[in-house]
Amino acid sequence: MMDPVDTLLAMVLLSVLISFGSSRLPALIKVIAFQGVAVSIVPLFMGHEMTWGGIVFTLATLMIRGIGIPVYLSRAIKKVAIHREVEPVVGYHASLLAGLVLIVAAIYVSPKFNLPVGKGYILLLPSAITLIVAGMFLLMARRNAIAMVLGYIMMENGIYLVGTTFSMRAQHIVEFGILLDVLAGVMIMAIILQNIKKTFNDVNTTLLRTLKE
Amino acid sequence: MQSVVLLVSALLLAPLYSAMILKVKAFFGGKKGPPLLINYYTLIKLFKKGSVYSTSTTLIFKLGPLVSLCTAVMILLFLPIAGHPPLISFNGDIILVIYLMALARFFTIAAALDTASPFEGMGAAREAFFPIICEAALFMMLILFYILTGELNLAAYFAGAQPLGLWQSAGAPLLFVVLALFIVMLTENARVPVDDPATHLELTMIHEVMVLDHSGPDFAFIELGAFYKLFFYATLVARLLCPWTFDVPLLDLIFFFGVLCLVYMAIGVTESVMARYRMDKVPQFVLTSFALVFFATVITLEFIK
Amino acid sequence: MQPFFLSLLIISCGGILPLFLWRRPLLMRGAGATLIAAGSLLGLVDAARQLYAPVAVTATVDLLNTVPITFTSDSLSAFFLVAIFAVSGLTAVYSFHYMDKSDHAVRTAVHYLFFSLLIAAMALVVTADDMIAFLLCWEIMSLSSFFLVVYSYEKEQNRRAAFLYAVFSQVGAMFILAAFGVMYACTESFAFAGASGMPAAIKLLVFILAMVGFGSKAGLFPLHIWLPQAHPAAPSHISALMSGVMIKTGIYGIIRLYAILEWHAPVLGQIVLAAGLVSGVMGVIYALGQKDLKKVLAFSSVENVGIILIGMGVGMIGVSAGKPIMAVLGFAGGLLHVLNHALFKSLLFMGAGMVLHRTGTGVIDHLGGLIKRMPITGTTFLIGALAIPGLPPFNGFVSEFLIYIGAFNGIALGKTNFVLSLLAIVGMALIGGLALAAFTRVFGIVFQGEPRSPSAQAIEQGPTMLLPMIVAAAACVVIGVFPTAFLTMAIQAVEPLQLGYGRIPLTPFIQITATITRAAVVLFAVFLILLALRKLLYSGKTVTRSGTWGCGFTQPSARMQYTGSSYAASILAFFKPLVPIEEDHPPVIGRFPVKTHYQSRTRDIAEHQMDRLIVKPVLFLFDKLRWLQHGDIHLYIGYILLAIVVALFFV
Amino acid sequence: MVETIILIPLVAGILAFFLPRTSGRLLLVLTGAVHLVSSVLLWIYRPEALLNDYFAVTPEGLLSLIVISLLFFLIAIYTRSYLEAAEIHAEHVFAGSMLLFLGSMTLVTLSDHIMVMWIAIEATTLASAPLIYTHRSGASIEATWKYVLICSVGIALALLGSVLIALSMDIGNVDAPMSFSSLTQVAGRLDPLWLKTGFIFILVGYGTKMGLAPMHTWLPDAHSEAPSPASALLSGVLLNCAYLGIFKTNKIMHAAGLGDFSGTILMVFGLASIVAAATFILKQTEYKRLLAYSSIENMGIIAFGTGIGGLGAYGAMLCLIHHSLIKSSLFLCSGNILIGYASRAIEGTGQLAKRMPKTFVALFGGFAGISGFPPFGIFFGELFIIIAAFRAGHYGAVSIFILSICVIFAGFIKHIIRISFGPSPSTIRMEEQPTMIWPQYVLLVTSVVLCFWMPDTLYETIRLAVATIGGGI
Predict the structure, then answer these.
(1) Domain boundaries in chain B?
(2) ipTM given for this complex
(3) Which of C26, C382, C597, D311 has the smallest CB count inside 10 Å?
(4) Best mutation site among C285, C551, C555, C560 for testing chain B: the one with the most B CBs within 10 Å?
């Protein structure tokens, strides 16, 4: 029988691949939003004991990740008329290939860690690893600043997955932390983005290479 | 007492011996040459005269002749003449002797530079250069003698039967030392082939050009100093060359002064048959003396083992 | 110990007080010079007293609650203190008039601060009794002397000199620190006392590391590069202080370490002797090739440090070979040369300072004939120039004589030591001859002949500048003629070296100095007799003055005089492989003489090779690495990923 | 009661956003003073925290706090005059951010819970970002962007590390609060594999913030673009805060018996930082970047010393304190120079000794201090670290350490000589007001005093702080 957790995680992995292949910012935002939602609800299906407070917290996270941030970013794009192209450093096909290799590698590596927790869920650890590395990949391989922010969010998703599923001990504080992080971080980044746009008339980060030795 | 008498006789005889060189050279040139007492005549003539000093000079110019004569007399005090113990002798006196000669050199050079003459400067530069190698060679000899005798004073090498002892322990290599000492003597005393006291072109002189501006008694002092210095070296060479002593004191004395005569004549012969080296060849020539002693030391070390 | 600290306090006051008096320059300089000189005098008396009644005195200060720092003064320290305080006092007096030209009142005041700090730091360095105290004072010494070097910072070359000095000081300090670190690793204690129990290999490592560190301060040959640059940059009394005593703290470090290690293996003596030989010979050759008066003196310091180390090396070999006479002669000769060099080098620097101060130039070939207008400077400089090549009857001869006799004792030893002793003797002979050439050159060109440029027409002024020179020159003669008392001091200073001889009997050594005194007296006697004779010969004679005989030239000009460069040229040519000379002159064209020029410059081979082998590759490597910070954020994030991945391999 | 001291600057910071433009200056000084007083009181009385799962007064935290407080107070005094001399957009944002920054840093020093610590450090990033962007130029926005993004990525990794430590508790079946103090007590039962992995993530994460190479890339940009008082804060105390995170985790590692492992990693990163700093200092063209790289070097030295442990850890603590004092003083001097010469380039300055003598004294004193000359405290810090490294037998590492320090010194003094004594442009646009000089002097004098005389309570606190990682003399 398909476990709901693994189903969700499979979709998360798929979203990683799609994000690697998508060339347009709005599409990318939507994919990441979906991913955020999916990751947020994974803990609900894990069978851990849930307090009401926890559920409320999870829901809040869900709202912010699924709706708050995507909307905010979309508006930012519209407001400052940012290019819709993600401007890759590494091409889409190559990225897709890299994504596939990454997922396979993560699945291959995961059992070696021999984690006692989350045993039943085959895809849990691979997804987490994939998300973190894929997030960094987007950070490194996309020139558009918004795409980089999205990469950062993807990375946070991965960490969220680790924090909320492997160890229940710190779940809420991790959730809270990540929420704060993503929220404040993204807001600050968005503000900076607007200023970048204002100053350079573009958010292509190749312009941001003047400070060097 | 004997030492004092010998010292006085050395002080008196040194000019005579130097005149012998002139005689030999004249002989080789087929000339009659000056009388043997020529140096005394010159000295007396100079003593009688007054002096002309260059306006560029200072007190140091006058100190030059004084110090060079002073040190020349000083080194004779340390010299064992005719195998007799010297007036002063102590452990390490030979180092003092070498440095006293350096002191004289310092003042000769300083006096030369005092005149602001480009020629004298040139001579001074050469005078500063060549003796450096001589000193190294002398110290090398000293090392060899020290190995042979374990002593560090002139008396231990040249007094009494000591030179014979040197020959007995070192053997043939000592010949190299005699040759080296001869070369050092020629260099230090401005003789051919290093320097030609009789040349007429100032550019090619070393010692003579440095004393161009001296005159009168000052110049006499310089000449006298030069005679003593040569006498010092010649004595050393003579003692090394003929180390034998006889039990009769008078015979010893005559034998020594005879050999000394031969050494001076050898200088005269060298001057007659050789030409002066080109200036840039001189260091190599002087270096030969160092190489000879070094070679002798190495052989002796093996020999002693 | 109390008078010692009191003297340091007075010296420090001499540094601090001028800071408040800078509006009144005369008062400021007076206060600074007087207090520093007074403090030095007190310190000198105290140190000398201690040498005659040697008792080790200790003072401890607690630092940072945990690290006690200790200062101990034994007779070795006291001997160095004598040299330090003597030169400090002289230079302090000298500074009063030397600094009068300066229109930077505040800068002069600050100069007094660092001047006093330098003296205090030096005095504390030689009394420091544990690693922390030593390094602390060592670094303060470096820092304060840096400021003194950079005093006239308006000139590019002075800034460069200060830069080089700072770098060499710091690198040297780091090597010393490394040596101490290795020691600490073995003994687990900051105290010097326990170091004798270390294994031999560790001792050797410590010694070599420290040798590099101390060598760079002492100006040992390949590490001397800063020295000829820094000395001309600093004010002359500072050069005198630095060259006279500051570089000796490096010597002190080496000899103190030798005492601490208590390791009498032949290898130490061989290292020290070899280093000394290289330094001595190379130093004097380069001294001969310099165009700047103070640079000549600086390179001559390199040479004299070499001679001192030859002495120490002879001593160490003597200890290892079980020849007490040779050991004591070597050490005592080396130590005495420390004092002697302090005296005549500071004398020469003060003389050079007078020349520089009055004429405004230190270029040898622009000067000439100064002794006529600067009789006292000229005469005292002459005494210094006679003392420095070791001519009798001056003090340089005494110490070299002792080292010679020590080295001759080594001739009878086995192979390696024999060769080294032989090299030491021949090397010292060579050094002596070359030094004579170098200093006849300096004295002859600068003080004699005719002025080569209009600026050389200056006259000497400033009684406080002349007095220290006279005192130093007198000291040179006194030590040269009556060395016994000073040799006794030096032998006292040898005792704390733990050579295992107990109290060293003085008689065999005093005999040597007594003969020197005798010979000197005879020399003076002969001299006086001849002087009387000369007087007699000249009585009633006509003495006239006229121009120099020009060998046919009727109108010789001052510019036609032999220059310092040509004086040295033939000797330098002999040593060509060691002293690369760069010449610049156009080839002769055509039959008739045209306007031409000639320039030559000696290039420091150590500087050149260090630049080629160390500086250039390091710069090249780091230049390439600079690419890392290229401004692209994508790669920056890649670095983080890389760091994680690499670090995970450690798990 | 501990929490009050966190709240004071936070409230003041929020207040500053709403107050009129220039009143922020006074507020800065006032808050600084109040904060300093409270820190001193905290030091003396050491009260228990209300939320003692999350907050605690630890010796290392106290050390950092007192340094932060002192620095902030002095920098606030300087800032008042600086804001008058330099034109700054949106001054209330600047003042508010400074105060919030102070609040978040206070939070770091007092937090005892892994996650709270992490949140606090993240908060420092967010609060300081506006400071870097103060000048509103292209370069400053670039610096801010890099700062925020790189640090966020780093901090995210630190979060992962914290989670992994939680994981190691689960695997080791340990039930304890996730505070550093309780973790240190139960460290022996934690799963070593995940603890090690967690440590690495935390080290890389906080190391990014602390400026360890190769994660240091944001640091020179941010420090050079921020206004000098902010740079002084960033370099003087923010780096310490990040170090605190690493230090506390390292304590757990030592308690778990993994001290060798964590020590080795710390030494590797420390050495990398020193070498990196050497690379960029040698041919630096801007003096603020020079100072920034010097901070990287010092962080490397501190990490290296911590990694060695023992005497080295004590040395690292000394370096930490004195680096804060001296480096902030240097950055304040750089502010004077920037105003005076209106150029960031080293070539644009010169003859500081003559033009701005008072600043020169502070600058050179700071330079001497940072290069490890007595009578400044870093001398002892470096001395102890090097000696400890020898004792621990890390001959290779200490050789690299010493050589790099030499290279750095050579580069540094070349630039300092150029600034202080080199040829200068003709006009200087600044008068040296006392308030822009005295804070530097006070900082330097503090360092000198602490070098020769350390109050027992301070020594005791340092000893307690490093005792767990085997530190002490």
Answers:
(1) 2-304
(2) 0.92
(3) C597
(4) C551
